[in-house]
Amino acid sequence: MDSIYQELAKLVGKEYVSNQPEELYIYSFDLGTAESCRPQYVVSPRTTEHIQDILFLANREKIPVVPLGGGLSLAGLAVPLKGGILLDLKRMDSIIDVNEKARYAVVECGVSQGQLTSYLEKYYPRLTHSEPGAPPAATIAGNVMIHGQGDLAQPYGFNSDLVNGLEVVLPTGEVCHFGSIAIGAGWFTNHPLPEVGIFLGWCGTTGIITKLSIRLFPAKRIRGVGTFVLENEDFVPEVVYKLTHTQMAEDIVAFSSAIPPFASDLQQITVNIAADSERELEFKQEILWDDTLGEYIHRGEGAYLGFVRDLKRPQISKTSDYKKGGGFEYVGSIMPIERYPECYRKGREISERHGIPYTVTGRCVGAGHSMMFAWTYAFNRADPETIIQARRALHETDDLVLQLGGVIWKPGTYGQKLILERLDPGTRELMGKIKKLIDPNGIMNPGNWEVA
Amino acid sequence: MSALNFDIEKCLSCETQACFTQCQYLEIDKASAKEEILKIARGYDSFVLHECVTCYACEEYCPMGNHPFYLIVERQEALNIPPVPRPLIQRAVNLGVPFRGDPEIAEVHGPVLNMAAFSDLMGLIQGRLFKGLAVISKDDRKMFHYFCQLMYLHYARSSVIKERLPGIINTINKHKPTEVICFHDECYGTYTSYCPAVGIDVPFRPVHFFEFLHRQLTELKEAIRPVNLKVAYQRPCSSRLSPDKHHFVRDIFDLIGARYVEREYTDENALCCAGAIQGQRREGSRKRAIEIQRKNVEDMKKAGAEVCIFNCPACLQTLGPLVSAEGIKPMYMSDICRLAIGEKPAGWR
Amino acid sequence: MSLAEFKYADIIHRCFRCGYCKFPLNWEDVNNCPPYARFRMESYSCGGRLWLIRAWLNEQIDWTEHLAEILYSCTTCKNCVIKCPLRFNVDIVNMVIAARGEMVESGRVPSAVKRFLENVELYGNPYGESRIRRGEWADGTGVEKYHGQEYLFYVGCTGSYDTRAQKAARALAEAMKRAGVSFGVLGAEENCDGNEVHKLGESGLFEILAENNIAQLKDTGVQKIITFSPHAYNAMKNYYHRYGGNFEVFHYTQILHGLIENGKINNLRGPSIKITFHDPCFLGRWNEEYEAPRAILRAVEGVELIEMNKNREGALCCGGGGGNFQIDLLGGSENSPARRRVREAYETGANILAVACPKCLVMLNDAVKSEELADGLEVMDISEIVTKGLVNKVI
Q1: Is C369 part of the contact surface with chain A (CB cutoff 8 Å)?
Q2: Chain A residues with CB-CB distance to B285 below 8 A
Q3: In degrees to the nearest 10, what's the CA dihedral of B64, B69, B73, B78?
Q4: Of A192, A203, A219, A189, the residue nearest A106 (C-alpha)
Q5: Which residues from chain A sit within 8 angstroms of residue C88, using beta carbons?
Q6: Which chains touch B (3 or more CB pairs under 8 A)?
Q7: Over the stretch A366-381, which tens digit does the pLDDT of each residue have?
Q8: A395-423 residue pLDDT tens
Q9: Which ipTM score applies to this complex?
Q10: Beta strands across the sheet bearing A208-215
């Protein structure tokens, strides 16, 4: 093994390779409940060429390679299940280009959400990206790779739908490009070229994204959040449907949680509104609250809580400290919005049975096309029993998602098995063929999405 | 449960029916006003119960001290005609539930300043005005143990107030205060107006915050330098419960050399911040609140105010941005008092 | 010692490794935690360090030299304390120091740390230089020994022994003399203030230093202290009172600012020049003094004060804290925080990078040379800028 270390050190520089217990320990963990597995090496590459060289080596030596971005998937997707080389991609953190007229940004795979938010606010204040709820250390590439969604999901869809192009290193070390950049026409579109969509949603098992072009959107001068509260969860789908019809809102998120008490037993719906003038803002508010939701208010069933200006970006999350325990994990799903009431009720029941204060969230994606519904389970890292309880609750919830007719989003190994069991056999067979073709030695993030 | 000390005879013999005729939100003549108040007194429905925006003003207008507003709230609850939607009520009721453990009780045997549900404003409590003063409810995780509950008057939930108040009073009293200076005006109104009206015993002596500030300023008179600012005052709804203390506003301004601008919406005619109105059930409430706020701020501007002095943090949260958008600086009363004795309140330029 | 006995056993597990601590206030990059900026391995980030401390105390990993280096690479700059959104943030640096205390107690620290502590104990300074020479920086300046003047001017180890920092110490002494400040120094009798010793986890030695210093200062009748270094400012202002040392402590920028405000220093003039100011961690984040240095710079006619993107609470530490100006665990790369910082300063277009701390001065001065920016950017202590401004010399 020593010779491999030497070779890696020669490839990227001694300072960026480690086989020491401290790095192996830290990089063996996902921040959720997933069991830890140590890699044999941790490598921090800086260039696409570095990554190619590492993959050539890995194929030759048959060593697994696991790509890591921000490490915030909370589903164990970057835990080296079969050991091998853990690639910390965050050194590749250059923002290569922003094209204001065509509204896109080209970034390296290690660029963080916070970095892009800050960069755009400073240099392109009329542009914004769809920022996910994860901490700002999450990477653009990582989020796109797992079909994430952000705070522009309702108007524009999943973040993975907002990609104009990719630079990818295949498991066997070759580089390819997708989108208009592949014919040297810049990074502005990924259509109408033949789509080879085998890198998004495969969670790093088909190759490593090294660059991507992400679409940007108008950032208006006034951005804020209005809140609407419902008693009865059965009204949530119709309220969200009506709100999406207006085309006046940005992010629409419904949530309920046991703590703090004022959120308990109620459904709060936050609606992001953006406007360039007071006139535009008031017009949108009139349509949303007065015209669309006025009937609920008047009947006493729904309440308008007010509009708060200045959207906090990046968003700050304190979820991990709910149990003063430094930990939480959630099951994310993509569900039809009409399932919200059952998701809430059944999720609440699972939480209560496991002694965890319930927290559920549903983010509308597209024009009511679906929602990302998440059930969050906090645990205390210092108390292993709570980790076990959380894990049980999570597995039960994975089962629930499929029972309710949804799809598990970014599943960990448990959820992956459930999905693969249900997968169309023809699809599964094709996936197996593709996987075998592009990763003949089975070295890319093995243990995940084992279709072959 | 405690019963409201309301005497129908007082309404029958009332000459003005000022409760409703002076109301800023009702169009009503004296005769109809009498009719409606009697309906309400006898437990029947009245359009007033549906139109009331819960601004508290009729508590001040009533020449008989007969608590028309408290009565309205009790009837709204009894007849299930809350002014706000149910989810808002539930949210508010749960908001006041303390869930982070019990407060630490240290016996003071002296005057205390009760921050109540405003522990996060401890930053205001500094400087010579507050030197040596014991403060209770400093921890924002435990502050709902000190919450006076009177906010629920906006939610037709007198029952919640009456249920929780004795416990709150007990907690405050455990600190063995000789007097309780109420940071928030509404606390003062609770202990001096609401409690007597519903027969809840208050074992400590409440002191109005402005009375305290005036007292302190008088003692530090030598240190006062006129602030020379044109000020408007945002009179909160709760101030209607202690009209006998309202004079301290002008007294303080006179003492510190602040020029109280001539306004249309002032004193008895003051406009509430409309924070409680924007979410009400009555159709058009959101826009109505905006209109009230616009009138209020324009009035301040027209009068030439440079600074708007706030009594209540909820008013500041609601009106503060609107006021500063018009170039008027929002500021707490205690901060302008600190300015007057040469101190630098945070954020003052 | 086991995890259960660790002072922060009940909160150290609360770190989620969410990574906010890597960012500056304005979120522009993930390079605001100095060791993480240097190594870009999660083990060196604040969260990584806390998890490793917990794992070590919990006997899940063994002590190694590498672990010790990771622990000692923290410069105690407090960026993490400012950025962490959770309530336990106030104790993050304390946890690192407490864990260091564990290593010190068991005698397992990096050898450079060992040398640092031994030198302070034996020679009163981390350089291992002779005590006799401590006062030599003042030779020829006419600065008097302390014998009851209004202020004690406490110079500190770096200002006394480092040749670059000595220049700044002399400049400060001159500026104060010209302004008529009544002050004296301890000269060869001065001993290390102990701030870095404390941050390195040697609380026992710190206590001895503090008690001895306090006794000495009381004996000589000192009541007011002007410190050259924000590190000494921090120790004397915030810790000495625990050992009975209740002095009025000022950082020199606060004194100079006061002198400018009441006209004792005036007529500061220079040519048209652009200056950017680097906030020292122990003046800024540790003691919330961001304005006095800036007010001084603004008072010099001709100076245009430009801010780096990362300023005040968001400043990037020069990498000299936690004894690192001597122990040097973060040097040797273009990624070292000092080199990153001077690149940030250079990007503002400023001609001068102003500092208010002798350790920043030394670290950033060396970094300018490593970055080969000496032609375009000069590092100067505020004391030097003021002194040159006073005599209307070309800055």
Answers
A1: no
A2: 297
A3: 30
A4: A189
A5: 321
A6: A
A7: 999 999 999 999 999 9
A8: 999 999 999 999 999 999 999 999 999 99
A9: 0.95
A10: A95-99, A104-108, A208-215, A163-169, A175-179
